[in-house]
Design goal:
Layout (H helix, E strand, L loop, with lengths): L2 H31 L9 E6 L13 E2 L7 H5 L2 E3 L6 E4 L2 E11 L2 E5 L1 E3 L5 E2 L2 E8 L6 E9 L18 E6 L7 E7 L13 E6 L9 E8 L2 E6 L2 E6 L24 E9 L15 E12 L4
Parallel strand pairs: 3-6
Antiparallel strand pairs: 1-18, 2-7, 4-5, 5-6, 5-18, 7-17, 8-17, 9-14, 9-18, 10-11, 10-17, 11-12, 12-13, 14-15, 15-16
This protein binds calcium ion (CA).
The site of calcium ion has 7 residues, from strand 18.
Length: about 300
């Protein structure tokens, strides 16, 4: 065996080993991708895998732009845009990127995507695989609004909270190992204390901004189940809608979740939920979304 042959055999072995490594990585990433079990809602209705680079699919996603009314109702600092520096699809991921920049009377920019008028559904499983960004003052969210919420330009929807809101995932670095799932509705909006939103946090006991997690709800008549990865951590039903002060008499709030809702993905900066950023040095920061999938029941 001469040196050339030995070299070639080693080269082939290396190539084969590389192939094996890639195969193992592909299989491993597929397994992690699919680890959440879909049980009751197993008919895929809508999916965006974000596998085409460039602008997000305009048949699925539109944009809310500007600074909204009163910082989108929360004193948020960003102006939302649809520019590629704030929203783009790259390498199989949707990137929503918050930038530190002066833009149209705001000191930050970011993006808020919505399926309003493009995709709405009553009940089903809504899930997204997301890596939340790191840093104080950031507010990534995956949530739903009632399809009958009025479109009043840049103002807060005028009939909120009557039209209802389901927050599948909200995150802030103050609580780096937890996310929260919440519903808002009439008498339990959270806007005017002591009328409280109906909410629960789930602690993964590891930093959530370290990697991807699957956030989802399974939603049917008079129930919403909240999931992180494989874990069902909360169920909300009409019996949970205690409103204040009416709950002094045992009165329950109105269940506004037996109707179609649409999807929103956004990354806010500052405002009531996370507080303002400690430092501008962390920017830009991106929220990564691997996919959004919506299922329905097979007998629907
Ligand atoms: Ca993807």
């Amino acid at each position: 065996m001469n040196k050339t042959k030995t070299y070639k055999i080693k080269e082939k072995t290396l190539l084969f080993m590389s192939f094996l490594l890639v195969a193992v990585l592909v299989i491993y990433s597929c397994e992690t991708d699919e680890k959440q079990t879909v049980t009751t809602f197993n008919v895929l209705v809508m999916a965006d895998e974000f596998d085409v680079d460039g602008v997000p699919n305009p048949a699925i996603w539109g944009y809310d732009t500007g600074t909204g009314f009163d910082g989108w109702g929360n004193n948020e600092l960003q102006s939302y845009t649809d520019r590629s520096k704030n929203v783009s699809v790259q390498n199989g991921m949707l990137l929503i990127t918050a930038q530190k920049e002066d833009f149209q009377n705001a000191t930050f920019t970011s993006a808020r995507l919505s399926t309003k008028g493009l995709f709405e559904q009553q009940y089903g499983r809504f899930e997204a695989r997301i890596k939340v960004p790191s840093g104080s003052g950031l507010w990534p969210a995956f949530w739903l609004l009632g399809a009958d919420c009025e479109d009043v330009g840049e103002q807060l929807d005028s009939n909120w909270p009557l039209c209802g809101e389901i927050d599948i995932m909200e995150y802030r670095r103050d609580e780096p190992t937890s996310i929260s799932g919440t519903v808002h509705g009439p008498g339990y909006s959270g806007l005017t204390l002591p009328q409280g939103q109906i909410t629960k946090s789930y602690d993964l006991e590891e930093r959530i901004d370290n990697g991807f997690h699957i956030f989802g709800i399974e939603w049917g008549p008079d129930y919403i189940n909240f999931y992180v990865d494989d874990v069902l951590y909360n169920q909300i039903t009409p019996a949970d809608l205690n409103v204040t002060p009416a709950n002094l008499t045992g009165e329950l709030g109105e269940w506004v979740f037996n109707k179609p809702y649409y999807i929103i993905l956004n990354l806010a900066v500052g405002g009531a939920f996370p507080g303002n950023p400690d430092s501008d040095e962390i920017f830009p920061q991106s929220m990564l979304v691997d996919y959004v999938r919506v299922y329905k029941r097979s007998n629907n």
